[in-house]
Write a structure and sequence with these properties.
heterodimer; A: alpha+beta; eight-stranded antiparallel sheet; globular; B: alpha+beta; 3 strands; 13% strand; elongated
């Protein structure tokens, strides 16, 4: 089991692949309904040591919500695409307002070993001016990274 | 980039004023006076924020006459991008491990 980075256009979206030994339907169910069981909450959360759980709701419009031990809640995103066994899409803005969200798209495809799961994180260009240059594109990662500051802290 | 450098970079960006400075430098390299313009903090405070950003490897500066001109450091930004890449790698690895555990129990 290993996660391979897929070669993509420079400065384009982040794409990650992993293969799991189960059907696409089951992989989709585990990814979504069991989100809180596998997400590495100890290292990646808004509340850090105080994080208690994270859940992903089912269906378009459902929220991804982290709850702290004291009951505070932080919404990480909203499900925007829901095709069980095939496709999951959600906005992604842990610790940040909705308008600064980027997009995550996860596809589930049948493979020789079971299911190929492909995750693509994109949408940084939303914050760029139309005439911006390459250097600015690189700096466009900053708002996204800022989100993770709250996760690390 | 070692883990503690990543943390320094992320900590540096966690401050709203420093993030605002980085956003300004996205446009073009700027002198301290230009950076301080429109920011609700004093110029010495801006200088101190610039020191933190420089130490974190996110910005760099060069002397132009009597002025210090600051710009983003592309290597620092690239390293952070790599780190973000790693985040999704970690998440998917954790997911695959979870599936494997469950499938073995069957």
């Amino acid at each position: 089991m290993s996660v391979e980075p897929r070669q993509s256009k420079p400065l384009a979206s982040i794409t990650k692949l992993v293969e799991v030994a189960c059907s696409p339907e089951r992989a989709f169910d585990l990814f979504t309904a069991s989100f809180g069981d596998w997400w590495p909450l100890t290292t990646h959360s808004v509340y850090g040591d105080e994080a208690a759980s994270v859940v992903m709701g089912a269906g378009i419009g459902a929220a991804i919500i982290e709850t702290s031990r004291s009951g505070e809640q932080a919404q990480w995103g909203t499900v925007t695409g829901w095709q069980p066994g095939q496709l999951l899409e959600f906005s992604w803005h842990p610790g940040l307002p909705l308008e600064e969200a980027t997009d995550v798209r996860v596809t589930f495809e049948s493979s020789s070993r079971g299911t190929l799961v492909t995750l693509e994180h994109s949408g940084w260009e939303r914050r760029r001016d139309a005439d911006s240059q390459r250097a600015q594109y690189e700096a466009g990662w900053i708002p996204v990274l800022d989100r993770f500051v709250r996760q690390v802290n | 980039m070692p883990a503690d450098s990543i943390e320094a970079a992320l900590d540096a960006l966690g401050d709203p004023t420093r993030l605002a400075i980085v956003m300004k430098l996205r446009e073009r390299p700027l002198a301290v006076s230009a950076i301080a313009q429109d920011l609700p903090v004093s110029r010495p405070a801006v200088s101190s924020h610039l020191r933190v950003l420089t130490a974190a490897g996110l910005v760099t500066h060069r002397s132009l006459g009597t002025r210090n001109v600051y710009s983003l450091r592309p290597e620092g930004i690239a390293e952070l991008r790599k780190w973000l890449d790693q985040l999704w790698g970690d998440a998917l690895t954790a997911f695959a491990a979870h599936v494997e555990r469950l499938e073995e129990q069957k």
